[in-house]
Structure formats: C-alpha cells, structure tokens
Amino acid sequence: MPRGDGRLSHDLLPGEKGPQDACGVFGVWAPGEEVAKLTYFGLYALQHRGQESAGIAVSNGSQILVFKDMGLVSQVFDETSLGSLQGHIAVGHARYSTTGASVWENAQPTFRATAHGSIALGHNGNLVNTAELAEMVADLPKQNGRSTQVAATNDTDLVTALLAGQTDSGEADGTPLTIEEAAARVLPKVKGAFSLVFMNEHTLYAARDPQGIRPLVLGRLERGWVVASETAALDICGASFVREIEPGEFVAVDENGLRSFKFAEANPKGCVFEYVYLARPDTDIAGRNVYLSRVEMGRRLAKEAPAEADLVIATPESGTPAAIGYAEASGIPFGAGLVKNAYVGRTFIQPSQTIRQLGIRLKLNPLKEVIKGKRLVVVDDSIVRGNTQRALVRMLREAGAAEVHIRISSPPVKWPCFFGIDFATRAELIANGMTIEEIGTSLGADSLSYISIDGMIEATTIAKPNLCRACFDGEYPVELPDPELLGKQLLETELAAGPAATAAADAIRRP
Ligand code: SF4
Predict the structure, then answer these.
(1) What pLDDT is stored for residue 508 in this prediction?
(2) Is it the case that residue 297 has pLDDT exceeding 80?
(3) Residues 343, 461: one domain?
(4) Distance between CA atoms of 210 and 199, rounded to whole angstroms?
(5) Is 350 in a helix, a strand, or coil?
(6) Which of 394, 231, 235, 375 is nearest to 313 (CA)?
(7) How far is the CA of 22 from the centre of ligand 1 (A)?
(8) What percent of the chain stands above pLDDT 90?
(9) Are residues 429 and 499 in the same domain?
(10) What is the CATH number of the domain that holds 408?
C-alpha cells in the first residue's frame, strides 16, 4: 500500500520526504479497563510520530493477540477489531520506518514466543549496532527446537528475539531467562535510540536508552498505569503524568505494582529536534513544554535576525509557535498568510503527475488579501532540502508579496540523524555545502536567517550537554559504526560489506 504522507508539517512537496519521525509507542496495564481502546486513543495522539503502519497487542492473562496493518491508526482499527482485543494489558505502536522497509512484516508490535510465554514489543528510535545485534541473534541457541529466525527486517525484531531467546548458560540446554533477567543482560548491549514498550501475558514493561534520546513517560490511571512516547498521549486517555522513564531505566508493571532497575548509567542526550518540530506542542519533555520552547525560539530568532517587515506569517502548523514568538519580540503583527489543507496529506491516493505539478498548492494556499503588497517575515521550523521553501517563496510572490524574508527557528541541518529521524542523506541537505546566503538566493528569498545553536538550546531551558544536536553540529552522542553498517536496508541486503552484514542477512534467513 502506498504511504500516505500524513505528516502535520511543512517541508513536503507531494512525493518529497521531509523530516520523518520514528514511531510512537503506548502501553497500558489496567485490569477492568478497555485497554485496546485506551491504546487506540493513545496512538491517535501519537499519530504524528508515524503514519506507515499501526498495531496493538493485548493480553488477557493467558494469551497475547496482535492486530497490525499498514496505514493510519484510524484506517487500521475499527470497532470490530478493537472489540476482538480483550484483556488487561496492551501495547501499541504507530510506525515510521528507519531500519527496515515499510511492509506489513515490519509493522509493530513485534511478537515472539519465549520459554515463559510470549513477548510483544514496540520501539521508538533507531539502533546503530544493528549488524552486531543480528550476529547475536544468529548465535542464539535454538530452544526446544524453536528457530531464532528473524522474520522482519527491522532492528526492533532483533531486540525482541534477543529478549526472548536468552538462557542462563547461553547454551540450548541452559535455563531460559525471564524477560526481566534477559533485559538486564541484553539492553546494555543495545546501542542507539530506543524507547521500548513491551509485554508478556502478565506484565507491562518499558525501557529507555541510557541517552534518553527519544521521550518516554509514565502515567497513572485510577486503576492502572500507562507508558507513552509523549505526555499528550497521557492526556487523551485521562492518565496523570507521574514521571519520565529515566534514561537507562527498565520498568515493569503487574499486580504487584511498579518496579524498576537501572540497566545502564544515565547519560542524558535528549533530541533537541523534538522541541523544534517532532513532538506535539502540548507535550512536555524533561519538564519543559514544547510549545513554550518554540515560542521562545521565535523570540530569540527575532532578536538574532531582525527584519524590516509589515507582517509575520508562519508555515503552518509547525512554524506557528515560533512565528508567534517572532512577532511578539519584533513588534511586527502576526497574521495568517497561508491556509493549510489539513486533509490532503491524509490520503493514500497517489497524486498523478499533473496534480503533483501543483506542488505546494496541494497543501498550502496563500491568503492573497492578507499578503498583497506586504513585506513578509515567513517563519518555519527547519529547512531540509529546501524545495518546499523555494516553491513557497514563488507562491507568495505570485500572491503579491512585496518582500519575503525567511526566518528558521532551528540552525542549518547539516548532518544526518541515526537515532530515528529520517531527514535525507547528507548530500541531499541543502545546508551541506552552501552558505546561508547561497541558500537564501537558491530559495529566491530577499533574506534568510537561522537561529543560532545556542539560541535554540537556551529556548528549551535544557542544559546543552544534556541534548543531542548532532544534525546541527555533527557531534553524535553515541559512537557510530562504519557507514556500511548503518542504513535503512541493512537487514534487507547483504551489502557485500563484510561478515557483520552477511550475518545480519543470515539471521533473517536462518531456518
Ligand atoms: S541528530 Fe538531530 S534529530 Fe537526531 S536525535 Fe540528534 S538532535 Fe535529534
């Protein structure tokens, strides 16, 4: 099924990819509640984090059922499918693919049998030692003749396989480890970004990588517990925020309550791009509200990069808070210069070439009466390839704008992300190899300015050492393997790139 481009934001011409999120996860332990429906609404609140596939696993205490398919949450589930998912524990997942193709087999939650029952697991993030993990899976002992074969080609299924397949001795005749014992052994070996929500028949689990790159929060229901990628997903299902799952923490919830242990020392490096663009504005991360961060980025941008203009407009929706901040700090009025067609991105109908040529007009329409004759400041959150901004400038000029000054509330994106955001390859990033002035000329703008890295970081109120900002400065918080051992298709091609990649491919095929 072709992918519907339902991302809330801006940097997309139809058929062009902008920054993409790497999934939303949700889990609930709540006897007596309709856990599948709570998960459905939780995933609905997280839909912006992944629109390729959606899935929910539910346990009734004796067995786990998984329902997943390609498409948006609202397309995958209906009353009948949700009604068939009866139980007291659930985990849910909305996917955007960063390792492994966008196919049904890679939809999550992943599911595997273990010696103690089953495990269903959802993952937000992206791992950087996938090839190494594939070798570890290939070395797992067969248990009771059961295969360790990995059916999917995503990094998540490797983690699921490793959690399911541990024995005390590491040999086939060893005693199988429980999930908690296996997690203590396996999770310290997993490198990269992972916010995991998983379950067996009796217990809900959650874990977050030592850097805490992707968010993960814990909430309380009257009769249960919730874990979710964003606090906005707690709000929608009536859960109160308790705390973040700490970087390097493993949590288990069952009828005995909540217990937790540290599987690694915390070394916080939360993704700064969550504050810029990825997370919902009504979410709080590390105690800081995302909307307030964006407004403050706009204020600082106005001070760092003033413009002589008549009107501040936003690229809706993601540029709006920063545009409000820019207008407030500059004293230039804020107005709606662009109207977004909120539903065009929510279709699986592929536009024909003729329609595709309409480009940005499929998504945005200028308000000519507002724009005509005005000197505009156009605030956007980021530029990846620049194609959309170029089309936007042309459209605004055609609508009568006298001047177009572009202001960006994040610094130039110069480096790829290996932790769950699919920007583009380095060669495709417009800021890689061009000066800001050259980019402005290429976009056809009268001027272009970006916020500074420090301005962006200060707006989050989070200490600079505690944030990942690698896509802006190239300082990756986790050691990266050789380039040939990174990449979305690592587990789908043998790459002719040495033993690790071959082992990865072998692990997939192993009978
Ligand atoms: S590289 Fe950029 S997008 Fe990726 S985790 Fe770091 S700050 Fe976030």
Answers:
(1) 34
(2) yes
(3) yes
(4) 21
(5) coil
(6) 375
(7) 11
(8) 68
(9) no
(10) 3.40.50.2020
Cβ atoms of residues 208 and 216 within 8 Å: yes
The confidence score (pLDDT) of residue 149 equals 57
Q: Kindly tell me the burial class for residue 200, based on how many C-beta atoms sit within 10 Å of its own C-beta (0-12, 13-18, 19 or more).
A: buried
DSSP alpha helix (H) spans, 237-281: 272-273
299 and 421, same domain (yes or no): yes
Is 23 assigned a catalytic role?
yes
**Nearest residue (CA) to ligand 1, atom 8:** 271
pLDDT confidence tier of residue 51, bands split at 50, 70 and 90? confident
Indicate whether 348 and 404 sit together in one domain.
Answer: yes
Average of per-residue pLDDT across 186-192: 97
Predicted local confidence at residue 125, as pLDDT? 92
Q: Tell me how many domains the chain contains.
A: 2
pLDDT the model gives residue 501? 43
Please state the atom number of ligand 1 nearest to the C-alpha of residue 415: 1
CB-CB contact of 400 with 390 (8 Å): no
Residue 509 belongs to some domain of the structure:
no
Q: How far is the C-alpha of 288 from the C-alpha of 389, rounded, in Å? A: 29
Distance 136 CA to ligand 1 centre (A): 27
Supply the pLDDT for residue 170: 84
Give pLDDT tens digits for 210-235.
999 999 999 999 999 999 999 999 99
Model pTM score: 0.89
**36 against 344, higher pLDDT:** 36
Check residue 156 and give its pLDDT.
84
- Of 9, 6, 461, 4, the closest CA to residue 280 belongs to 9
Short-list 211, 90, 109, CA closest to 163? 109
Local confidence band at 462 (pLDDT 50, 70, 90 cut-offs):
very high
Q: pLDDT per residue over 232-251, tens digit each?
A: 999 999 999 999 999 999 99
Q: Are residues 442 and 397 in the same domain?
A: yes
380 labeled part of a ligand binding site:
yes
Order of all β-strands in the sheet with 110-114: 110-114, 117-127, 192-199, 204-208, 249-254, 257-262
User: Quick check: bond before 34 cis, omega within 30?
Assistant: no
Dist. CA 375–CA 466, nearest whole Å: 39
Name the nearest CA neighbour of 346 among 134, 44, 107, 119. 44
Full domain range(s) for residue 35: 23-269+492-503
Ligand 1 surroundings by CB, under 6 angstroms: 213, 271-273, 417, 419, 421, 468-471
Please indicate, yes or no, if residue 5 is contained in any of the structural domains. Answer: no
pLDDT at res. 107:
80
φ/ψ of residue 11, rounded to 5: -90, 30
DSSP letter string, 293-345: HHHHHHHHHHHHS----SEEEE-TTTTHHHHHHHHHHH-PPB---EEE-TTGG
Q: Are 16 and 3 in contact (CB under 8 A)?
A: no
